[in-house]
Amino acid sequence: MGTSNKNFTKGVLGGNIQPGMKKTIGHLTGAATSSLEKDQAIFDDCWKQYITHKNEILSSPEQIDLFIQMVSHTQITNSKIKAKLLFLNAFCLYEAIDRESQNEQSYYSQACDLINQAIRYSDESEYHKLHALLMAKVGSNSISGTKDYDEVLKEFCYGQGTSSLMPDSFYTNGLSNVIKAKTNAYKQGKLNEEIKHFALNSLWNLPILLYLIYKYHIYVPPTGWFSFTWTPFYWLWIGIFGLIYLGYICRFFRQMSKGDNIWKNEMLDQYK
User: Fold this and answer.
1) Which end of the chain is more exposed for a tag (fewer CB within 10 A), N or C?
2) What angle in degrees, to the nearest 10, is found between the helix axes of 125-137 and 104-121?
């Protein structure tokens, strides 16, 4: 009995799987791969159908509901593909908001629920981007009808993944007003800080520098072999305070001359 148990343990741990067991594992692996490919093909077909017939689908509330129901009843086993189908329905409702303004709140609520389900199935950054678009278009989840730009940009900047279903430019363009408003506010705040920083440092540095230059200008060094002169010390102090003030000037103009894209990227980095 002891020998039999040792041989069984050795066989499993050592990789000596019986031919029947190998066949079963191979069959399960192949079935899983086949199921994933099938699910992906079903999603691709649904996505293509929406993109191709978008105008027809979004032509009326009845057509929108019909498409949503069709996608919702699609049989999918893979969780990532389920998330994609939920994204598709949420995306459809997002685009329907502009066309069916009387159903705005209903579509917004449904779309938020669907995209949050998609995130629970597969936490992809693109799903958060769509959620950000919904929040920017209608309002935040917590307070209906309000738009919290900070929360919108947190969702937009969530994760590091690139978008695969829609181009990144689609989400950026959809949030252009939010990004522009927050960039301008961020830029103005930073420029005000820099002006204050430059002014405060000029208050102590510039008078000292000017005083040293003045003293050096009127200074008359003594003559004679053993006379002590302050000239080298004036040069040293003027050089030190001059370099410090030059640093403030360079920093000030570097901030003032930044381009809009640099300000935008700095602003977005706060939410990553």
Assistant:
1) N
2) 160
Q: Tell me 163's DSSP state.
A: P
Q: In this model, does residue 204 exceed pLDDT 60?
A: yes
More confident residue, 23 or 38: 38
Q: Is the Cβ–Cβ distance between 187 and 212 less than 8 Å?
A: no
Instruction: Report the pLDDT averaged over residues 165-194.
Output: 94
Q: H or E element: which one contains 76? A: none
Q: Token pair for residue 188?
A: 């103005």
- Which candidate, 227, 230, 226, places its Cα nearest to that of 238? 230
Place of tokens 């017939």: 53
Q: How far apart are CA 21 and CA 1, in angstroms?
A: 23
- Rounded Cα distance, 132 and 149, in Å: 9
Angle between helix 125-137 and 149-156 (nearest 10):
160
